[in-house]
Amino acid sequence: MSTTQTNKFEIIKASTSKINEVDFENLSFGSVFTDHLLECDYTNGQWQKPVIKPYAPFLLDPSVRVFHYGQAIFEGMKAYKDDDEALWLFRPDENYKRFNNSAVRMAMPEVPEEVFIEGLNQLLQLDEAWVKKGKGNTLYIRPFMIATGTGVIASPSNDYKFMIILSPAKSYYSGEVKVLIAEHYSRAANGGIGAAKAAGNYGAQFYPTSLANKEGFQQVIWTDDATHTKLEEAGTMNVFFRINDTLLTAPVSERILDGITRKSLIDIAEKEGIDVQIRPVLVSELVEASKNGTLKEIFGAGTAAVVNPIVGFSYQDVYYELPKTEDSMALRLKDMLTNIQHKLAEDTFGWTVKV
Amino acid sequence: MSTTQTNKFEIIKASTSKINEVDFENLSFGSVFTDHLLECDYTNGQWQKPVIKPYAPFLLDPSVRVFHYGQAIFEGMKAYKDDDEALWLFRPDENYKRFNNSAVRMAMPEVPEEVFIEGLNQLLQLDEAWVKKGKGNTLYIRPFMIATGTGVIASPSNDYKFMIILSPAKSYYSGEVKVLIAEHYSRAANGGIGAAKAAGNYGAQFYPTSLANKEGFQQVIWTDDATHTKLEEAGTMNVFFRINDTLLTAPVSERILDGITRKSLIDIAEKEGIDVQIRPVLVSELVEASKNGTLKEIFGAGTAAVVNPIVGFSYQDVYYELPKTEDSMALRLKDMLTNIQHKLAEDTFGWTVKV
Ligand SMILES: Cc1ncc(COP(=O)(O)O)c(C=O)c1O
Ligand SMILES: Cc1ncc(COP(=O)(O)O)c(C=O)c1O
Asked: What is the pLDDT of residues A128-147, one digit of tens each?
């Protein structure tokens, strides 16, 4: 291992790379990590010098607050290589802003831009061989922060650890996705933490999702917890509904994550002249549109899967199958978005940022 | 260190004890831990042999799911010593049941009774010198479970770690507690995880509680997230309201933790002939009762503080002060409960269990 000190970062290079052990054609999402990670500790009311170092386990006291009180947030973003082997990020400023919004909501310190953005750039340069070019290939980026202060008392931690880890990812075809519309369980409360990428929001969904899985549905579309009449979002994706040629999606709120894929797709669709309506979408509308044949498509939108077409939904024990479409809006928008991300189409929005 | 193997447990004793370094008269809650902890890992679909060993930090991979998806639950219970130095637990079966209910809701494996209950007994015997006799002294017990499986994909972990750590605690007087009634933020959703002791429920409250702190309120009383008209519970306590000589408390629900202190106080109060009403309590009722002088007391009930009298509440920017009472129901019930716990009164309910 070799250590470099700059003004801003300490960089400890791994003596060997694991890259040759990795089968880049058969990657299971989120399971393989690159050689290095970024780590930055918050202690005594201050962020310490960030360190880039070999990916490895680390020690925690059994009483750290992330275990007991769930002070933990994360982001999910991707890096892409173009045909000239240049490395790109997609709207990293949006992830950075959202991360700090999540931090505030979870009573955690905001991370400085030079740690998050510059740190990420440094880390990516070091592990850039892990990003393969070609439209199916990306590097999934996982910034996260956990409370590392000790003591089993339900109050905010004084100490935190911010990390960025990197995982090479193939764009995946997740098979036919059927969804269940939530009638009892829910994801977020009014005045709760649904709009934050807080760890606790995800574990909370595993049990109701497993019940849906048992009935043959891969995902749940969550509804508002008070009335279960409004369609909100899926586990890790915002949701779009195409009725005739209009695209509908719920407005973001304190219950719904402000997805970057969602807002990018809205911009692309509007630029394409598609009628996009951002308004509460009722379950009853969806059922009605399915019955009268105007419901053409449903799809999820999120960084991991980009766009995930849904083949049908179940509500009150009735399964509604969607028609096969020749001319899928989901796939057309997905193609336009991934072309921008991989620098295969002009980025008129100014979303892509070179590493 | 000496190691003992029994059929069921591996016991590794610390070579020296930290007990002489501890000032038992000046303990800050939840910050000092005893010499040993219990650890039991779940891998390959099975609970492994539990180990009792010296309290120490342990290694975790940066991608473990407790960091990213908040699969983490806990319990809070206490051990007491009577005047003959015998060690007692209070309704441990209730904590055990609730722990496994939390596990199911968070898609985590249930912990076997011999690990949780027998393990706790073994651990307490080893560290029994840390429990001091006398009514103000207790040992706070923190069983918890975290997801230790690696991989940043939002699905349940395959691996888990169950632990029990112990912290000596003085009964505390937390000063005058003023509370704020929640009008915007909330703790739990309908169909959410509010009834589980899931880590994510607590971190979610820190920010709104810090806003209340800034206005001079130590705690928030949460209301239902849909209408904010019903009084639910405080951060780590259920809440009771005394109107004239009637004691009111909200029914437990999927939004409210089924507190063991709460249900024990209800039983004691009923035995004392107090009129107890378990029904939704409206904020408007509370305000009305305060205005017309029938509101006599409000108090929180939970394992840590036992009973926490509240001196006043704020709602819609109006502060309602409670009258000073000579004859406090809160303190009377607290005394009866702690007398049972410390074996100073006959336990006609059969709640106390010898270690
Ligand atoms: C709950 C939730 N909704 C939606 C999304 C989609 O957001 P983005 O498009 O920014 O990845 C995510 C994250 O990936 C999410 O976790
Ligand atoms: C949210 C919440 N409510 C109420 C309580 C009180 O429960 P118990 O009396 O079992 O300690 C607790 C735990 O201590 C809690 O965390």
From this structure: 999 999 888 999 999 999 99
Q: How confident is the model at residue A71 (pLDDT cuts 50, 70, 90)?
A: very high
The pLDDT of residue A175 is 77
Dihedral-angle region of residue B91 (phi above 0 means left; psi in -120 to 50 means alpha; beta otherwise): left
Tell me the chain A residues in contact with residue B190 when contact means C-beta distances shorter than 8 Å: 186, 189, 225-226
pTM higher than 0.95: yes
The token duo for A192 is 């709760």
Domains of chain A, by residue range, sit at 2-169, 178-341
B172 pLDDT band, cuts 50/70/90, is low
In degrees to the nearest 10, what's the CA dihedral of A87, A90, A92, A95? -140
Residue pair B90/B78 in contact (Cβ under 8 Å)? The answer is yes
* pLDDT value of position A172: 67
Would you tell me which residues 275-334 of chain B have a C-beta closer than 8 angstroms to some C-beta of chain A?
none
B178-341: CATH, from 3.20.10.10, 2.40.340.10, 3.30.2350.10, 3.30.950.10 = 3.20.10.10
CATH of B2-169, one of 3.40.50.300, 3.10.350.10, 3.30.470.10, 3.30.470.20: 3.30.470.10
Amino acid at site B56: A
Condensed to tens digits (0 to 9), the pLDDT of residues A169-225 reads 987 667 789 999 999 999 999 999 999 999 999 999 999 999 999 999 999 999 999
Q: What is the mean pLDDT of residues B49-53?
A: 98
Ligand 2 binding residues, C-beta < 6 A: B 76, 197, 233, 236-238, 257, 259-262, 301-303
Give the strand pairing for B36-43 and A177-181.
unpaired
Angle at CA of residue A252, ends A248 and A257, nearest 5°: 115
What is the C-alpha to C-alpha distance for residues A232 and A277, in angstroms, rounded to an integer?
A: 14
Q: Is A174 on the interface with B (CB under 8 A)?
A: no
